[in-house]
Amino acid sequence: MQKVSSSIRNRYFITIWKESLFQRQKGRSVSLNHSTCLQDAPGRPRTQSPPRRQREDRPLLVRPDIGMTALRLFVSYFAWLLPCAWLGANEHEFDTQAYLQAHCSTCHGANEQMADRRFDLLGTDFSVEPTAEQWQEILDVINLGEMPPEDEPQPTTTETKRFVSAVTGQLKAARESLDSKSRSHFRRLNRYEYRNTIRDLCGLNIDSFDPTASFPADDRFDGFENIGEQLVLSDYLLQCYLEAASRSVEKAAQANRTSEKIHEVFMPNDMCRLKFHFRPQVWFEVNVDGSFVDVAHSDRGLKRVYPGRLQGVPADGYYTIRITAEGINRKHPYSAKHMDVDRSEPIKMEVIVTDSKVAKPWQGQNTSDRIVATLPLKDHEADVYEIRTWMDKGFVPVIRYANGPAVFKRTIVRVAKAYHADTLPSNWRDALSDEPAEIKPVWISDAYRGPRMRIHQMELEGPEPTHHENSRRAVLFGEQSVATDSTDLRKTITRFLFRAFRRPPLASEVSRYIDFRNSRLQSGESEETALRTTLKAILCSPNFLYVEVPLDETQPKNHQFRIASRLSYFLWSSMPDQPLLEAAAREELSDPNVLVAQAIRMLKDPKAKAFAEHFTDSWLHLNELGAMPPDTLKFPTFHHRQLEPLMREETRLFFEEILTNNLSIEHFIDSNFTFVNRYLADHYGITKVVGDNFRRVSLPRHSLRGGLLGHASVLTVTSNGVETSPVTRGIWVLENILGTPPPPPPPDIEPLEPDIRGATTIRQQLAKHRDVATCAQCHRQIDPIGFALESFDPIGSFRQNYIAGTGTVSLEVDTSGKLPTGESFENAAELKRHLLNRKDQFARCLTEKMLTYALGRELGFRDRPHVTEIENELAARGYGLHDLVELIVSSAVFYDD
Amino acid sequence: MLRGTGALLALPFLESLSQPTSALANGKSAAVPMRMVCVGLEYGLYPNDFFPKASGRDYQLPRLLAPLTELKNDFTVFSSLDHPGVTGGHLAAHAFLSGIKSNQAKSQPDGNITVDQKAAEFVGAETRFPSMQLGLGGGSISWTRNGVEIPPITRLQSMFDAMFLETPESKRNRLSGSYAVNRSILDVVGDDAAALKKRISGNDLEKLDEYFTSIREVEKRLVQSEAWLRKPKPKTDYRMPKSVPTRFIEEVSLSYELMKLALQTDSTRVISLGIHGWTGDSGLTGVTKGYHDLSHHGRDPTKLQQLAIIETFHTTQLARFLANLKRTQSSDDASLLDKTMVLFGSGLGNASSHSNRNLPLILAGGEFQHGAHRAYPIKKGRQTPACNLYLSMLQRFGLEVDQFGTSTGTLEGLG
Prior knowledge:
By secondary structure, chain A is an alpha+beta fold. Chain A has 32 helices and 17 strands.
């Protein structure tokens, strides 16, 4: 079952507070019209930096060549100064509680707590953080003009103005006084960070090896899996850590210097011994005369081609697999009704490596499988295909036919009955028969003319030798591979502690682990084993398991190392590398220029794939994909073509493209390109894309697919696998694009029960819902956005009509709608144009999401000035995504947190 | 996951200290411990076919309860019980056995611990496995007090092996050695944590405390594992099917079989089974659509008809399981069913509307007075939490507690 996380405290975090500041300074009345938030917001000068940070040295801060920027900063400078002067002492004395009592308490008081908010008990001590957060939220909705609702009596403009400035002033004062108070700093490694860290710390290949396989899932906060508060350490997890430490160290310590090389050639008789099939309803894999193996089925659960005498490779390492193969009968004589296979696609061979100890390799798929290649074969022309891949000890290669009939048994029974009835013996329906009842002149396996994959030979060679200095033993133990005398031992342990703790170890820590090693020696372990046990212990220390721990006041230099970790877990989801640790040791990381330079370097490293992967997973909630898998019968292609990983890949590549080229974040809302391969292109109705590799494709102007809202990943994760809900999708956009999550529904409201008998659409049902006053306030914001996306079905395919329960075409989809601010639209393309007008609001949302991810904690009202600062500079620089990353790592909060 | 006393991959172990056979010998039912089984369905049960119309003892068994006709006096069906304040459809269904959503767990003294885990804590090391969790087509329905969803056993063969397959001597020695190593590791990293503790305060102390608590718990488990390692496992005549079942109906049926075996041999006293659905073949005749799809029936009669096939299968399997427990003696005067409370239901009240109100709930066995349909309509604005039922169960199980989850007391009328 899945977990939910949502932030109530943070609901209205996104605000437009500075707009009203700006307007006040110009002597205008505070406009409570919602549409003011759509205007381009003026900037604000940066907050005061801590003295040690030379903020003026920050790179790329202001580009003087952008005239508008200068003007913007100029205007905002006054925007900042004036209200400060304006907020005289008497302003602070405005009775803010009386204002709440007068205008808010009817709905948010003792009797009623709409949206789960209650203000009559709200104190005014802003040094209490939850109190201040609550005030911030109130201020936000008032600035937005959302409260009090239109149909309620309104306070006077003067009253509201004084309220806003009083609360703003008090919040500012609270921020300043709270700034010195440090936050909680415990954050343990989450599951993927642990795995990556083990990879880098122990020099392990983790293509197949996963020490975290049995770890419980990490708790999420608003999609994020790296929030310290949420990351609980339980006894259950500690047991997992003990096990994982042991497996990792043992694996890394396996000496592979002397492992013998193998070179095996497997002939058809090694891979299959069945000469014919008389029962079509079993898997189809035959070796008629010893010269090749033919495979006609594509079911993942059925038999795979496997060289039976191979027990598993002798050691971890890189191997070369060579397969001689061809595609047979792509153009077959059967009708599409009988044989549902795409003839326009070459016959494809999938090569998998799998752990022979987990399951019998020839049986269907198992959890240790890893697809290493999917290769299109030539038609009726045998060729040699070579793959170089990492294999762990005990793994074996197996081959399957990737794109044949997916529900094979049903297909071939259909074909046999229609075309080859004469080949069937009388007992063909008997699933248990070992022998045919009578000998037929031709068997179904001979007569069959359907598409097949033909394997002639398989070769396996490896492992490739590794150089001693790169060997995992060297990574683990240091240059000398087995420490024997005490000097080397101290060196080995100190070095490992440094890397594992991501900071220089204390002398007391070094001696603790040396003593431990000695005690293991005394209890009978060999020197090698005692050292391994010691390394395992280090991997269970809180100093390893927690990425962030409170700073040791006696070791001020450690702050530099903490920043190094913060940066590397932000961009790599793993430990810092040598250059970064060295920069920390030289105490260079207090210079934002150095941090930015490091970030630029690190984003070029392949390890930065982790950023694209985990940040998009968190921000867009794609880590929930698969929690509600689409219905297998309703959406067979989703499963046959394994669309889910393709969907994720599209979004990640899209993100990387925008990041690498510093493109504008506007692309996330609407874009003229995306990434697809053949299957995803089919899914989208894009033609002329062939092959399994992803490539960038241009989209026509105003394409429905442009931007994240056209990505199947997003559209699938916002559905429940069976039907779409405009409400879910609308909320998703409010939360993750606009940054204005609606409050939860009142607890006594029952969800809609769809009634499909009367052929009403979801739109008609929701219209009723919006008639209820308590629902209307939020649903007029939520539903219209969701309506625009109704042109996409639960797996993100385009549709014009709903499909009824019986599978027949039903009512037409209506994608038109009107935002509460008045803009109307006919479809998603037009909606996106309205969203683009709210670019600044999106920029703020994305800034907050990325800052949350970078800091590994929930943001609060104290972070508001930092967010504003980053956001304004981002606007000044032209909204580039790479700029946003640079601004975050060079921001004061990233260093000071 | 076999929430065993051993390290994770290590599933050694043996016969209980208080076997049913020995209890049988001295014939004292008081010495026979109570067991608990909780079965949770991901997609609810169609309310119109589940809840009886009349309350009290004279009620007509509705369609879904018909398979339980023979056992009418052995179970109670409840209506109008649910978890106050828990909403969110599928996303809230995981609160089924706790009454608390995982994101609310922090504010609770026991987090969102599920009723089965609360009972498992009470059993402790008395059985080889303090508890077992099964999950068909998805995760388990059990959560620990730290807000962790316990991963389920995914291979029924490993459940069988863990209970009955004797660990070879060499492996025992190896395991024993690894327990000792792990204990020494916990000692030294505990020193690291103690050093850390000296320089922190406030919230941070609380966070670090998670680490210390975990160390103490794991140490305790290692000691228990060591103790169980040397005790022989129980014997059984039961033979696993030659090939692992792949069809849903076979998986469900085998799960119930193994659960009964586990209880009978006292390998564990607490089991939970989460039933989500199937990915391959369901094996159910007449079901052509997906389970989740059908649960969104929108009152379409063709869909409802298929849904009824699935849901009737569930109650039929339950009836078989209960009858099986009833046939099995656990002492001279008590059947295994008497000594096992079986809770069956779902965290979804109405899957078609994604409602978490009015949960379908059945309780059988456990020496409760059964035979009635007990309805708890809202009176004077007060709703009866399902946790009241869970509290009654925990007390019957032997725990001296007066609160669980969102309970406001024990469940009225359930004797």
